[in-house]
Amino acid sequence: MKFFLDTANLDEIRDVASWGILDGVTTNPSLCAKESVRFEDLVKEISRIVPGPVSVECVSEKSPDIISEARKLAKLAKNIAVKIPITIEGLKAIYALCQEGIMVNTTLIFSASQALLAAKAGAKFVSPFIGRLDDISEEGMALIEEIATIFDNYRITTEIIVASIRHPRHVVEAALIGADICTIPYSVMDKLVRHPLTDIGIEKFLKDWGKVKK
Ligand code: G3P
User: Residues with Cβ < 8 Å from 177, sequence gap 6 or more?
Assistant: First the structure.
């Protein structure tokens, strides 16, 4: 499974990139709004740090506008994937952009039918938001299972990015299903590494090392 970082923060991206496990980055307007760097400079710098796909969201709503905005975003760096919300206008734009070879990440996916349509239009990625479904008492991970089954049934190569991840268990369950990618906030990425028994074990080994005859 590939690990993307769900952030627009350069310090977080540089840090996780240094761990040697980072495959890409996803941003959205809310994440970019938290940063003080000018939008285009931010996107270029993220794309320089991370060689894998960097998702950047289009905010236009009509397909001709989405298409021209996406083309501009795609020119910022070779590894840009344009994020387009799933709507009818979005589908028209996804189809046109994919014909041009632009990587599209279809975002704000909340149903398997939306994922299937995005894949048919040629999207490279679909991003189902599981945490936001959990937030309204639905089962976000059940959506991942449905999409994975449908994509397997038809040998669809569109990759599933499990998004809106809230905790490490989401990552483990996505991996058990066989999702292609998890996009993970920095706080959860950090929690994935830690275990109290590891900390206790390190402390004990260090203490005992002090008693070893050298
Ligand atoms: O990648 C999508 C993600 O940023 C949404 O997460 O926590 O706002 O639901 P959240």
Answer: 141, 144, 145, 148
What are the beta bridge partners of residue 3? 182
Specify burial of residue 74 (Cβ count, 10 A radius: 0-12, 13-18, 19+). Answer: buried
Q: Which atom of ligand 1 is nearest to the CA of 131?
A: 9
CATH architecture label of 2-209: Alpha-Beta Barrel (3.20)
Q: What is the pLDDT along the chain (214 residues), one digit of tens a residue?
A: 999 999 999 999 999 999 999 999 999 999 999 999 999 999 999 999 999 999 999 999 999 999 999 999 999 999 999 999 999 999 999 999 999 999 999 999 999 999 999 999 999 999 999 999 999 999 999 999 999 999 999 999 999 999 999 999 999 999 999 999 999 999 999 999 999 999 999 999 999 999 999 9
| In the chain, where the domains are located | 2-209
Active-site residue, from 83, 204, 211, 213: 83
Bridge partner residues of 6 (DSSP): 26
Residue 83 annotated among the catalytic residues of the structure: yes
pTM over 0.90? The answer is: yes
Please name the residue whose Cα sits nearest to atom 1 of ligand 1.
Answer: 163
Nearest residue (by CA) to ligand 1, atom 10, is 164
Does any ligand 1 atom lie closer than 6 A to the CB of residue 6?
yes
